[in-house]
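quick one before i forget lol
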Amino acid sequence: MARLIECVPNFSEGVDMDLIKAITDTIEAVGDVVLLDVDAGKATNRTVVTFVGEPEAVIEAAVRAVRKASELIDMSKHQGEHPRFGATDVCPLVPVAGVTMEETIEYAQRLAQRLGEEVGIGIYCYENAALKPERKNLATVRAGEYEGLAQKLANPAWKPDFGPAEFNPRSGVTAVSARDFLVAYNVNLNTTSTRRANAIAFDVREKGRIQRSGNPITGDIVRDDEGQPVWKPGALKCVKGIGWYIEEYGVAQISMNLTNIQVTPVHVAFDECCERARERGVRVTGSEVVGLLPLQAMLDAGRYFLRKQRRSLGISDGELIKIAVKSMGMDDLAPFEPNEKIIEYVLAKDAQERLVDLSLEDFTSVTASEAVAPGGGSVAAAVGALGAALGTMVANISSHKPGWDQRWEEFSEWAERGKVQTERLTALVDEDTGAFNAIMMAFRLPKASEAEASARDEAIQAATRGAIEVPLRVMESALASMAVIEKMSEIGLKNSLSDAGVGALCARTAIFGAGLNVRTNCSDLDDESEQRAFISRAEDLESQATALEGEILERVREKL
């Protein structure tokens, strides 16, 4: 899985689009970063920019953007409705995929340090990245705003975490954080009543509603000992929400911000709205995501609704997304386009074409061409992926057999295991060609001097080890898929036994084919002990595959 973080800097300029473009141009100039959104607000005189990519690339892009903003924006002349205290007011980092919050905090603090040292502006760390507990809340950090900043910086207690403590009238200061991914999510209702939509929003949002005695609408407000209103919490944690009427569509909506989808995922918010709407005589007709969301959120939703149907979860990501879209009516108001709404898919649109993106006919043609890659390694991985897919298919089909309803979870677990290996082997189709290309690049390195020649030799050896590890991973994944195939030959649907048998043959072919690649590449290793160790691993995997294949085919033939 790709390691992705999102950066959402807020710049104190929302009118001059040429200035804003000059800032976003610095972001787009960084490789491995994709600019997702630029939301300029004239009334607030503030622009929210969203970009995503590999962590190191995102940090570099953020440093460049903040530097450019400090050059172009003069805070001494800024006016706007939104609280602010810097040319780049806030710059949060958000984990998207393959990165933990703990890692994101480290990246945020590293970004803060670079901004302080390289750009020369004062930086406060807040929320999860806060270095001092009293600076966790952004409102506290930003109190007094730009107009009170000179006085604030004169107080030693408010010395920035990084960068100078002197007042910079042009750039102000910036707050950097690590926060959870926020999803803007609206649920559509079969009513035009804003009041009813608000009532449902109050039912579900964490803040809830003010308690009243007697009638929940007209009753007296319940107050605590200090005379403050008592709030009755709503059903969902990490959810903010209101109800409103959308004239464009002629329906009322529950508009929510899901501030931590690990705590309250999209599908949980949807189901809770359905239940609360039903209690009030209102029906949910669908929903929509405003902006983008991570792939995992859609996959989790698909699995959630399949589980409710007692159906196997081991299906493709594309099918899981379809289930999620239909279950939550995400195409109710407009088509849901995964390539435009899912962050990872938006990024993939700009990526180099992969072998696995080719049609089977095109993949076969390019393999048959005079090009040296793809070769046997990629084909071995592809054959292994087909074998794993067959085992997964048998598990999925078996889970739906009439009379086996109580066993759906058993087969679903095997199907999910098969899907994991199918996806790994599919990815290895391109990784094998990438490993070959890495060797070719190493051979092209200069060798004019002794130092260059030594570095070139080391690069060749490192690339060779990588080209050995890839087919070994093919062998390991194909062998793991044989465990699924073996189990399906034992308990799977009888009519699909031949599919399990073909799957076993594919897996064995992948293992022995990849083993040939291991031996070929080992011949280029200088260290003979390394050669022996790699070949020994390959031989062990081949031995296990031979035994498993025999057992599977014998069982299949007996049952057929």
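fyi Residues 355-559 form a domain with the Four Helix Bundle (Hemerythrin (Met), subunit A) fold (CATH 1.20.120.680).
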